[in-house]
Write a structure and sequence with these properties.
It is a single chain. With 599 residues, the chain is of the alpha/beta class. It is elongated, with a radius of gyration of 35 Å.
């Protein structure tokens, strides 16, 4: 399943509702003691609730006597006590269960977030953030709704129904029981049938809501692009078309809900009317007292009032299960890259990196790398150059093990990176990426992201080495300056300086520079190159470069074309060879000369 999976209006029976309900049980188990106490309070509340009509019957029969010797003080006090007890146990149930419900939401949200972090880079490149955020929000809310309704609606209705049915069967004519059970059976069958039919429209609503949300967020994320092309109206029209479909399905869903509500009310009205006819007839014949008539009437009201909410509860639970279905599918998504069982941590001693006859393709029909074979000796710098699309940046992704190779191996100090833990592998590698994306937090937070335990002095020293400190000092809020969504308040060069400072602060054994100065002008580039050189001293370094001037000091330069290494050697050797590298060098020198002439 990709993040933009298609919502399908599958019949309810095709969805794994019971599996989703079973998925809730582990979240309840942590507070099983509280759950049991809450259930005990629930039962006691319903016993008190059912006791109220019984005491009321006795009161009516006593007051219906021709001669009342004294007020039935005991019955009156019992009536008040039962009313109070019902409220007390209901509130106690709520207090006990609140912690359970919110802890379950917290655990599910964290579990989902952890799962999303464990999924592969391929999944995240294909995902639609807006749709996933809606799935996550609705999924967590649906868990709360399911727990809420199950504890506060379904179970109380069942307990009360069983208590009332037991009393009616024991004390009154079987006809009352038959009418009640028949009414309930018809009511439940009607509710289930109509609600299941309505789910198609609810699914469509979810689909279009997620789509509209994704379109809106995407247009805001790409704000500058929208402005460049003056396509504000295009984005509004696209979102409006989707919202129009959402509106149509929402209207049908609401209309069908009204029809369902009326049908439920009709079934209840018929059942109550039949019961009252039979009860009135038995009172007239002397087979039931006025108190019995009041008792049956009170029981019916007590039974059908919560049963009247059953339709709403069932619909909401079905809606919640529908919402939760997408979250469950997300949680069932298998990570593409996983640690082998019992995988050891990577132990880096020298920091030698070896690509051993590596072949790789993102898609089977589009191979990217062919027989890539090279070694970066400990403490040395190997640069990779070539045209866009040659496969240079793919090397960095493979070294981080965002993907597994199809052929060959990647070794660090002789250890196959596919056989060690991902966490230890990534802890050993630092990177200055081509596109540095920052959190919408302070500069201090973003700098310390490479080493959250770093002291203020270490952060400042790293910023100074990355030629960033003076810029930060010029800002009104200094290191407390918030950088904006994805670092939009900083220029490309400033963001790359942050990335370089991070690499300096992390100081791993192995460093990757992925076009690390691409966003800098020539003057800034020279200043940064010295910082990079200092950062990479005594480190094994893989430098991926477009500007050849940044890697002339490399111990070895690999020239790639169409996913293959076509030349290798140091700068002087490759210039003398007069091949691809020499041609690229001459072209870039001409471009630099033209820029200087224009100035």
């Amino acid at each position: 399943m990709s993040a933009h999976h298609r919502y399908t209006a599958a019949p309810t029976e095709d969805r794994e509702d019971w599996a989703n309900i079973r998925a809730l049980l582990p979240y309840l188990w942590e507070y099983r003691g509280r759950v049991l106490l809450a259930l005990g309070s629930l039962v006691l509340a319903k016993v008190a609730n059912v006791g109220v009509p019984l005491v009321l019957k006795e009161l009516v029969d006593v007051l219906d006597m021709d001669i009342i010797v004294a007020l039935p003080v005991g019955l009156l006090l019992a009536y008040g006590a039962l009313r109070l007890s019902s409220s007390l146990f209901n509130e106690l149930r709520d207090v006990l269960f609140t912690r359970v419900r919110y802890r379950a939401m917290r655990r599910l949200t964290l579990r989902t977030l952890a799962h999303l972090h464990n999924l592969s880079l391929r999944f995240h490149l294909e995902r639609k953030t807006g749709a996933i955020s809606r799935d996550l929000a609705r999924g967590a809310a649906s868990l709360s709704t399911l727990l809420n309704y199950f504890t506060f609606s379904i179970l109380p209705i069942l307990v009360e129904f069983l208590l009332v049915a037991g009393i009616l069967v024991k004390q009154y004519d079987i006809v009352f029981t038959l009418i009640i059970f028949s009414s309930v059976a018809v009511y439940v069958a009607f509710t289930f049938a109509v609600t299941n039919w309505r789910m198609e429209y609810r699914l469509a609503m979810n689909r279009y809501e997620s789509q509209a949300n994704n379109e809106a967020i995407e247009s805001l994320i790409n704000y500058e692009t929208v402005k460049y092309f003056g396509n504000e109206q295009l984005e509004l029209s696209r979102c409006d078309d989707t919202l129009g479909k959402w509106e149509d399905n929402a209207v049908i869903s609401q209309a069908s809900m009204s029809a369902l509500n009326f049908g439920q009310a009709a079934i209840i009205a018929v059942g109550v009317t039949l019961i009252m006819f039979f009860a009135a007839d038995e009172v007239r014949n002397g087979e039931m007292s006025i108190g019995d008539f009041v008792l049956v009437n009170a029981f019916l009201l007590q039974l059908f009032i919560p049963l009247g909410f059953l339709g709403i509860v069932y619909r909401q639970m079905k809606h919640s299960l529908t919402d939760m279905d997408q979250l469950v599918k997300l949680l069932n998504e298998k990570p593409e890259i996983t640690d082998k069982p019992g995988a050891p941590d990577l132990v880096v001693t020298q920091g030698e990196v070896r690509f051993e006859h590596v072949a790789f393709a993102y898609q089977p029909d589009r191979p990217i790398l062919h027989d890539i074979d090279f070694t970066i000796p400990p403490g040395k710098k190997v640069a990779v150059v070539g045209a866009s699309g040659a496969g240079k940046s793919t090397l960095a992704r493979l070294l981080f093990r965002f993907y597994d190779v199809q052929q060959g191996r990647i070794l660090i100090d002789g250890q196959d990176i596919s056989q060690v833990t991902q966490a230890s592998l990534r802890a050993a590698i630092g990177i200055v990426p081509q596109d540095t994306v920052l959190f919408n937090e302070s500069l201090r937070y973003n700098l310390a992201y490479a080493n959250p335990q770093a002291s203020e002095e270490e952060i400042i020293e790293a910023a100074r080495l990355a030629q960033l400190h003076d810029f930060v000092q010029s800002l009104p809020e200094g290191y407390d300056t918030v950088v904006g969504e994805r670092g939009l308040k900083l220029s490309g060069g400033e963001k790359q300086r942050v990335a370089i400072a991070r690499a300096i602060l992390k100081r791993p054994k192995i460093l990757i520079f992925d076009e690390a100065t691409s966003a800098l002008d020539s003057e800034s580039e020279q200043a940064i190159l010295s910082a990079l050189k200092q950062a990479s001293a005594n480190h094994t370094t893989l430098a991926i470069a477009h500007r050849l001037s940044t890697i002339v000091d490399a111990d070895e330069i690999l020239v790639m074309e169409n996913g293959r290494i076509v030349e290798r050697g140091n700068h002087q050797h490759l210039l003398a060879y007069k091949g691809v590298y020499s041609t690229l060098w001459n072209l870039q020198q001409e471009d630099r000369g033209k820029i200087k002439d224009e100035r």
